[in-house]
Structures are given as C-alpha cells and as structure tokens.
Design goal:
The complex is a heterodimer of chains A (297) and B (289). The model of chain A has no long low-confidence stretch (mean pLDDT 91). A two-stranded antiparallel sheet of chain A has the order 1-2. Chain A is mostly helical. Helices cover 72% and strands 2% of the residues of chain A. Chain B is an all-alpha fold. Classes of the chains: A mainly alpha (297), B mainly alpha (289).
Chain lengths: 297, 289
C-alpha cells in the first residue's frame, strides 16, 4: 500500500515539475548542444558546412577584435565588480546603522535600478555629453576640464564603469542589507564587551558572517559584468575605435549582423567555458574566505 | 521567508554625535549622487531646444515645456509600443507566475527520485550566460515561422518562468504548514485542488513578488525584442526607444522625455510595490547560502 502511495506522490511530483523540465530541454539543454555543434560549422542561415575547429582557430589566431572584445570585457569586469560589490556593501552598512529615514534613503539608492536599461543608457549618454553633459559641467565647476568620455577611447570604458556604479544601491545592496540584518546582535554585544573596535567588529564578526552573501554577489556580479550588452549597443555601438566593443556586442554582431552563426556560437561556448572555469575557481578560493555558519569552522 | 523579513535594526553601541552627523552627510551625499542624473534628465525633458544647451546649465527649466512629453509621444508610434509591451508583459507574467508556482509546488511538497539533483540543476541555470542558448533558440523560432511575432517573447515564460521565480515560490511554500495540505486532503481535495485552494491564496505576497519582477523584467527586456521583432509597429518600448534615438536623437529634450516615458511606469511600480521587491531580492541572496 505504501509503495503505491509513494508511486502516486512521485508521479505527481514529476508531473508538476514537468513544465520546467520540458522548458529546460527545449530552451536550455537542447540549444546548448545545438550551439556546440554549430560552433564546428560554417553556417550563414542558409547553408551549413562542417569545418572542424576552424571557427575557434580563426578567432584565436586571426581575429584581433575577438581579443579586443575579450580584454575590454574583462577590464570592465575587473573594475566594476570589486568597486560595485564594495560600494553595495558600504551602502548597506550605512543603511544598517540606526538612522532616521532609512527607507527613504533606501528608496533613493534603489531608484536607478528601476530605470529600464535603454532609458538608462540614453540618460547616461546625455550625462557624459562632453560640452553640455552634467558631469563635465560639474567637473568644470571645480576647475577640472572633463574629457570627451564616450568619444575618447581612453575614457570610454571608464565611463561604462562609472555608469555601472549607479546601480550600487540596487539588488546587491538589498541582499547585503538582508544579510546584515540576519547577523545576531549577540555577536556584536560579545565583541563589544571584549573591547573590539568598530573595525574589528566588522572584520571579525560582520565580514565572516556575511561572507556567503558576498560570495554570491561576486559570482553574480562577474556573470553580469561579462554579459554587458545593452548599454554599449545603445551608447557607443562599440566605439570609439572599438574601445567599448564588449564581448556580447561582438558576438551579437557576428550572429545577427554578419550572420556568421558558427563563429558566434564558438564565441558563446568560449565564454561559457571561461565562466564555468571562473566560477569553479571562485568556489575553490571561497574555501579560504567564505564561512558557513554551522559547518564547524 | 521568515529569515528575510526585514527589520530595521542597529548593531549595539549608540553612535556619537559627530559620527552620526558624518553618517548623515555621507548618506545625503550618496542620495544626491544617485538622484542627480535622473533629475538632470527630467530637467532636460522639460526644456525648450535653446535652453538644452544653455550655459550655465539650467536646473529649473524656464519656461517648462510639459508639451515635450506629448511631442515625443506623437513623434513616434509610442501608443503601439506601449500596448505591445503591455500585451507581452501581461501574458508572460501570467504564464511565469502560474507555471513557476506549479513547479515550485512540485519541489516543495512531493518526494520523487532525483528531486534534489533536479533542484540543484535548476538553480545552476541562474548562472548560465544567455548567449550560449540565444542563437539556437533563434533558429528554432525561425524554423517555426515565429520571427516578427510575439511568440518568442511570451511562450518561454510558460515553462516554469525561470529558476529565480521557482526558487522564490518554493522557499515560500516551505513556510506554509503541511497540516493545511493534510486537512484539505482528508476533505477529499486532490493535489491540484490543494495547490489552487490552499497554497495559492496563502502565498499572495510571494506571488506578488514574482509578478512584480516579471513585470519589470519584461518591460525592460531588450535583447529578445531586438532579435525577434522587425516591424516598427510591433516594437516594444525598449527597442522603439532605440529607433527613436536613431531618428530623433538630435532633439535631446524629446529623447529625454521619451526615456522618461519608458521609465515612469517602473518607478511608479516600485513605489507601489517596494516591499515585494525588497523581500524578493533578499530571498535570492539566500540562494547563496
């Protein structure tokens, strides 16, 4: 009898998760395998032809824009992720102190995240305008002559980093805030009784206890930064002189403007493998600094 | 979900007066920094074309051209774009919310072989970069003759709505006492009946969270409409705005007005549904635990 009940339960379980499983097969696993196969093809929407590793070889050996887009994207991630995560944590720590009007501040900090990506790109295009933008007006007011930002290849990437920091008060900060509020007061009380300074309370109480959240934010931040697309598509189209040609933008062009679907698929798989390795390395490294409550360390 | 019930609480140790003033100063400075680009846009959207380039810059536009919003709206097929976006957003959000809750119910309440592995697999898809599936999915829709239709934008939402929504709802369902299910079962309710009449009514806050994120994600979506829609009348607001930029980009005040038209519903949504946002985001953070 109980075997029948268990079978009944199991059948219902599978039936209920079936929409996700089917969707996963049609929209994720199937396309991933298909994309892998395409990456060994010369494929232009009409004709396909097996070319072995030619797409990969050409990307690595004959395509300076591939390397350019890869290095642009990593430079962007290298600057925007640490600054962004630290900024979000800083903002969350400030909001977690007892101040009046916390929810007002949180709302104002969060507001930029609510501006849709295209609207936000247009807005920042105007902020960075060399002659009439508010940024250079502001710099001018303190006696600094601002650069041409998005029109100057030395500053264009930096402009994207600055723009990304507008999102410091977004989801990441809220996640940190929730984490900070999950830290028991008892720890702080004990630390204070032991005479720990504010910095030591942060370093030895807060930091280890929220480290799983920091880790989560870093992982998701890296994935997000390496996926940057919309802002560059709208604001610079990759220019000037390919200074903001990000990986996904170049991939998109190969796929949907030049219709080199094989090459674009190879690019997609290269990024997938890079991200996978990067995530594995981060999980490895996390053993040294991420502390899970209750695991005995 | 209890763990993320946000309370404003302070670490012990009252701050000294200078520390407190410093804290407020930093908070106000940051708030200004975050708000200025937005106010600058609003100010520009209300200017006459001459005043856009005035030096020194005007913060309070004089005269205030409220008509810029009307001009921007009628300069391009905004009415179509907004209706299209509402259509896509509504259908996707309904599909994602309903199917995510079914899948979450399966994960939360039924034991079956492979459940945990499947759950971890599902969570790991959150980390999958979209570009690795983008091209084949495009080819599938092309094969199905669905280019320049809304199918590719809506249909995928009906397959569980994505890992984030499923995770969020499953976490919520786990907080609902099983005794309620059992009681309904004794009264003769089947699994679907329990889902619809017991769990769903008790999960309104979590469902609202999912719906709010669904609305926002669809309203904001750029890549999919860019790939799939070709006819300007079929555009959604986000790619319509991109076209607006191409054709009217020199009229900065109208472009800014158009950008604000795109942003306004999301900002209103945020003010109406802030607590759902905060709760939903906080729950994702706990996926990291």
């Amino acid at each position: 009898m109980s075997g029948k009940v268990a079978r009944h339960e199991s059948a219902w379980g599978w039936a209920l998760v079936a929409p996700w499983v089917v969707g996963f097969l049609i929209f994720t696993l199937g396309p991933m395998l298909y994309s892998f196969w395409l990456s060994f093809q010369k494929y232009d929407l009409a004709h396909g032809e097996y070319v072995g590793i030619e797409n990969y070889r050409r990307l690595a050996a004959e395509d300076p824009l591939f390397w350019k887009s890869l290095s642009n994207t990593f430079l962007f991630a290298l600057l925007s992720v640490p600054l962004g995560v630290a900024g979000s944590l800083g903002a969350a720590l400030l909001l977690n102190a007892r101040v009046r009007g916390q929810s007002l501040f949180r709302t104002l900090f969060y507001l930029p995240t609510m501006v849709p990506a295209v609207a936000s790109a247009l807005l920042w295009l105007w902020v960075f305008n060399p002659e009439n933008g508010i940024l250079n007006h502001g710099l001018g007011a303190v006696g600094v002559e601002g650069p041409a930002w998005l029109q100057d290849e030395r500053f264009a990437l930096l402009a994207f980093v600055i723009m990304s920091l507008w999102g410091i008060g977004g989801a990441r900060m809220v996640i940190f805030l929730a984490g900070l509020q999950g830290v028991s007061d008892a720890y702080y009380e004990a630390a204070t009784l032991d005479g720990a300074s504010a910095w030591k309370r942060f370093r030895f109480v807060t930091w280890p206890l929220i480290s799983p959240i920091t880790f989560f934010n870093v992982i998701m931040g890296v994935i997000g930064a390496l996926g940057v697309f919309t802002s560059a598509y709208v604001m610079t189209g990759g220019g000037p002189n390919n200074a903001t040609l990000f990986y996904n933008l170049y991939l998109f062009r190969n796929a949907f403007e030049y219709f080199k679907l094989g090459k674009a698929s190879a690019m997609a798989w290269i990024m997938f493998v890079i991200l996978l390795l990067l995530t594995l390395v981060q999980f490895r490294l996390s053993r040294r600094w991420v502390h899970y409550e209750g695991d005995g360390n | 979900m209890k763990a993320v019930n946000l309370r404003w609480r302070r670490p012990p140790g009252e701050l000294s007066l200078p520390a407190k003033s410093g804290l407020y100063a930093v908070l106000i400075f940051l708030a200004a920094l975050f708000t200025i680009p937005f106010l600058w846009t609003l100010s520009t959207a209300l200017k006459t074309p001459e005043n856009v380039f005035a030096f020194p810059p005007q913060w309070i536009p004089n005269p205030a051209e409220w008509g810029n919003f009307v001009k921007a709206w009628i300069a391009q097929p905004f009415t179509f774009w907004v209706l299209n976006t509402l259509f896509v957003t509504a259908l996707s959000t309904i599909g994602a919310t309903l199917t995510a809750s079914l899948v979450a119910y399966g994960f939360a309440r039924f034991r079956f072989r492979g459940r945990n592995a499947l759950f971890i697999l599902m969570l790991s898809t959150m980390m999958l970069p979209a570009q690795v599936t983008m091209i084949p999915v495009f080819l599938i829709w092309r094969e199905a003759g669905a280019i320049d239709t809304y199918w590719p934008l809506i249909a995928p939402a009906y397959f569980g709505g994505g890992a984030f929504f499923i995770f969020l709802l499953r976490q919520f369902f786990l907080t609902i006492p099983r005794e309620l299910d059992e009681a309904a079962k004794i009264d003769g309710a089947g699994p679907l009946r329990i889902w619809w009449s017991v769990l769903m009514p008790l999960s309104k806050p979590a469902l609202a969270t999912v719906a709010v994120f669904g609305l926002m994600g669809n309203w904001d979506e750029f890549m999919a409409p860019l790939i799939y829609l070709n006819t300007p009348e079929k555009y959604t607001v986000s790619i319509g705005l991109r076209m607006f930029q191409d054709s009217m980009g020199t009229q900065t005040e109208l472009l800014m007005a158009a950008a604000l038209i795109h942003a306004a519903p999301m900002i209103v949504l945020f003010f109406l549904a802030q607590r759902f946002f905060v709760r939903g985001i906080a729950t994702t953070g706990f996926a990291g635990r």
